[in-house]
């Protein structure tokens, strides 16, 4: 398979991780970077070893050598530049959260269908064998009937950081909550009712954004799920899946670095290797820059593009994801439970799949 030629729309910090991931992928090649300043874009491209740079996003999108675009711009700009890239004839992998609302997600996929191009939301952990193992254990009944999912992601960032800048789409529910909501949906289906509470950020530039948020989601088949996110807590990456006969603990659910998960049944805990055949994943010691999950994501996206395949996570998933994140935010803002829009996916595919 000929490697897919990628362009990066932005000189964001996460782009360095993406560049390392693409460099390690046999299916992808990073050929160009586009920024808002030509000098800065050139310096950034030199730093990450990319031959071509452009001083505007529009110039990169006009480059015929670029087949697909990775978009890590601020959240508030995701829909705008995803649509523009698709209209320019590029495939798109857009960083999470793909869209702020379900309507924005639909706009993007309408543009993708009109352009006959692929559009993918960048929640990289979903492609990792660690996540696939957790799904298999649930389906196989390793912990009995699924009863509860608990997810958390907290970080500590200073005022003025983009993640706390309201005008750019900052706030804990969007920047961090998308991971937790995604995991809950992936493992337990589409929620029927959402309860949430939040603490508002008050520093200049962050007014109105959520500094911390906690939510309880009512899921199909009497499953309950809880999440908590924060932008002023110590770093916490947590995922716990509880069944009627045991539980699964995922020590690093989003970056997938340790190489194992823990399965507890009847009071006995054992570690399970997430990739016993060493086909996909690296350990944290082998991959200290956390690029492995991103590499697997770019592998999956590139192979779907090259072979004209339907991505594992497509239109309905992205619309549902945006709708549930929005419902969590609404429930916190209104101070009362909110019922998310019905799933855009086939109902048979939404529970425990």
From TrEMBL:
Domain of life (superkingdom): Bacteria
Pfam families: GFO_IDH_MocA, GFO_IDH_MocA_C3
Residues annotated as transmembrane: none
InterPro entries, sorted: Gfo/Idh/MocA-like_OxRdtase_N, Gfo/Idh/MocA_domain, GFO_IDH_MocA-like_dom, NAD(P)-bd_dom_sf
Keywords assigned: Oxidoreductase
Domain GFO/IDH/MocA-like oxidoreductase: 132-248
Domain Gfo/Idh/MocA-like oxidoreductase N-terminal stretches: 5-121
SUPFAM superfamilies: Glyceraldehyde-3-phosphate dehydrogenase-like, C-terminal domain (SSF55347), NAD(P)-binding Rossmann-fold domains (SSF51735)
Keyword Oxidoreductase in annotation: yes
Recorded family membership: Belongs to the Gfo/Idh/MocA family.
Protein name (Swiss-Prot/TrEMBL): Gfo/Idh/MocA family oxidoreductase
Organism, as annotated: Rhodococcus pseudokoreensis
């Amino acid at each position: 398979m000929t490697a897919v030629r990628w362009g990066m729309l932005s000189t964001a910090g996460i782009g360095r991780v993406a560049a390392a991931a693409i460099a390690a992928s046999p299916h992808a090649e990073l050929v160009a970077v586009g920024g808002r300043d030509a000098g800065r874009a050139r310096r950034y491209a030199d730093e990450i070893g990319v031959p071509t740079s452009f001083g505007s996003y529009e110039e990169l999108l006009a480059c015929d050598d670029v087949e697909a675009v990775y978009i890590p711009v601020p959240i508030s700009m995701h829909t705008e530049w995803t649509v523009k890239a698709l209209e320019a004839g590029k495939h798109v992998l857009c960083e999470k959260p793909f869209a702020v609302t379900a309507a924005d997600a639909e706009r993007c996929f309408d543009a993708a269908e009109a352009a006959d191009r692929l559009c993918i939301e960048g929640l990289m952990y979903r492609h990792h064998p660690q996540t696939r193992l957790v799904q298999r254990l649930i389906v196989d009944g390793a912990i009995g009937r699924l009863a509860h999912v608990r997810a958390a992601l907290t970080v500590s960032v200073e005022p003025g950081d983009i993640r706390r800048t309201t005008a750019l789409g900052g706030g804990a529910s969007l920047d961090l909550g998308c991971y937790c909501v995604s995991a809950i949906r992936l493992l337990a289906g589409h929620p029927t009712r959402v309860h949430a509470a939040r603490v508002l950020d008050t520093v200049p530039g962050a007014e109105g954004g959520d500094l911390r948020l906690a939510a309880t989601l009512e899921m199909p088949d009497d499953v309950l799920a809880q999440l908590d996110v924060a932008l002023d807590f110590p770093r916490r990456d947590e995922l716990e899946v509880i069944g009627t006969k045991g539980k699964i603990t995922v020590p690093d659910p989003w970056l997938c670095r340790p190489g194992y998960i823990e399965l507890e049944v009847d009071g006995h805990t054992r570690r399970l290797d997430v990739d016993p055949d060493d086909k996909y994943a690296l350990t944290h010691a082998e991959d200290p820059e956390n690029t492995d999950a991103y590499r697997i994501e770019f592998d999956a996206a590139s192979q779907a593009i090259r072979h004209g395949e339907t991505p594992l996570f497509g239109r309905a998933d992205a619309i549902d994801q945006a709708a549930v994140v929005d419902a969590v935010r609404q429930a916190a803002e209104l101070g009362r439970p909110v019922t998310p829009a019905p799933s855009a996916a086939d109902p048979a595919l939404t529970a425990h799949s």
